[in-house]
Amino acid sequence: MQRYASLPRLEQAQVRHCPEKQILFARNIHLQIIYWTLAPFTILCSAVAFIGFIALAYFYNCNPIETGQITETDHLTIIFARDVLQPTPGLFGLYISCIMSATLSTLSSGMNSMAAAVYEDFIKSSMDGRITDHQATLVNKVACLSLHFSAKFIAIVVIGGVVSTALAFSAESLGGILRVTISVMGAISGPMVAIFVLAMFFPKTGFWSCLISFIVSNIIMVAICMANYIEDPYGDLFLPTNSSITGCQSRNFTVRQLPPYDAHYGNQETMYISRFAGVHSEKVGSIL
């Protein structure tokens, strides 16, 4: 991503330190990969968005939150899949297994990437050629425990796994994994994207100015996210549905009442800084 983001056109992407034929071949392969993955990625994102519309139409006459079947909007997709797939034996179990396998695959690849990034950025320079790339790969995967340097690197994956697991458990008390993902990723990725844009258009920018602005912007965005979680100005925001006795099949339900203020703009009694929506975190972080 850094290679392509730092170039004005995809045609200029190339692999350095290789013969000319290998450069052309690698560049063509990279371009083909990008072009062939754009369409599936677009279809996948469209399908995910379309599932939300289908779930809204499916539960329009009986909101499962109002009936007490679920407590968070993040559970809508799961209960929707259960109602639709459960009549076919084994299909709902296949759906759950696909979710678990995709989650574990993403988690394992992310932990390996994190370990490799930490090694390349902070540890490789101190080795000074005393360890080969093959040994570094084994060390990062904790597959070669007999190496002299293994004790120094095992903590990379272990600490990363512990922190990731702790964050997963803490997401439940923060209002749902979707809200946490949008806010945290937006707050962190905003300053990071700004650094790449700054390097592309202003390559002579000083190191310390970038570092200080990056740290300050991250601190400000984290403070905004914490204020948003503590005061929760959009806690009363929801889309009204058309729940009825017929639609809920005679189940008891409690219709939620809209607050006396316009919930789209947040609770006016909260701090103004806490009313920054999570979807705008990336833009605000980039500007800062």
TrEMBL record:
Localisation: Cell membrane
List residues traversing the bilayer. Answer: 33-60, 92-119, 153-171, 177-201, 208-230
Q: Name one GO molecular function term.
A: symporter activity
Q: Domain of life here? A: Eukaryota
Q: How does it sit in the membrane?
A: Multi-pass membrane protein
Q: Which Gene3D superfamilies does this entry report, sorted A to Z?
A: Sodium/glucose cotransporter
Pfam families of this UniProt entry?
SSF
- A GO term (biological process) for this protein? sodium ion transport
* Keywords assigned by UniProt, alphabetized: Cell membrane, Ion transport, Membrane, Sodium, Sodium transport, Transmembrane, Transmembrane helix, Transport
**InterPro entries the UniProt entry points to:** Na/Glc_symporter_sf, Na/solute_symporter, Sodium:Solute_Symporter_SSF
Transmembrane keyword on record: yes
Report the GO terms under cellular component: plasma membrane
Q: Report the family membership.
A: Belongs to the sodium:solute symporter (SSF) (TC 2.A.21) family.
Q: What's this protein's name? A: Sodium/solute symporter
